[in-house]
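Hello Y.,

Per our agreement to keep a running log of every chain we model this quarter, I'm adding this entry. I've kept the format consistent with earlier entries: sequence first, then predicted structure.
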Amino acid sequence: MRVLIADDHDLVREVIAAFLVSEGGCEVDAVAWLDLALEAVRQGGAYDLALLDYNMPGMNGLEGINAGAAGFLSKALGSKAMAEAVRLMLAGQIYAPTAFAKQGRNRIHPALSPRETDVLKGICAGKSNKEIARDHDLQEVTVKLHVKTMRHKLGARNRTHAATIAKEQGLA
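Predicted structure for the entry above:
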């Protein structure tokens, strides 16, 4: 079985590739960027499975995943669970961990924590950091920290851009 891994974090990419090879039965190509993954496919890469980091540049978050994903693997999965998930997807099954499915009902973006989701919803509603803090019984400085990490995860330049991304992707 041929697997393509595209992840912009060297350690993550290399560890997953080494693990899949050590489990046996997988030939793995690993690249750092979406463009390199697309080029590998164009160069005759008949892959049975592609594992793509949906937060890497060019992926457009979940929009990129919706273009034909056979599942969602959390980088926090244990090695045995990851191996089983890969086996299921290679066999044509769709894989999504129960925790991810539950998060989908409670969060608007799987990379965001529940508190970051609350903050983003507040921003989309036009609320100030002070109002968001009051609504969720937080300190304003804590809200600022959540805004910063949430913006990073969404790839947003500022809070307005984060709200735009959320609305364009139907997240809020």
